[in-house]
Amino acid sequence: MGVNVVLGGVHATFMPEEAGNHVDSVVIGEAENLWEQKLEEAENNNLKNTYHDTERPDVQKLIIPK
To answer: How far apart are CA 37 and CA 56, in angstroms?
Structure first.
């Protein structure tokens, strides 16, 4: 269908190789700092297999859902 599937969370962080067998891209660690980069690369059909961020997101900058 042409839809990219991205998986993150505890399972993807601790078992990225296994998770990668089922999706197009895996996020290891925190995803908040990577979303803009991932979206841009997905739009350009340049999505990487894995993304890894060791930085904690700045909670003051996070958008709180309604």
So the answer is: 16
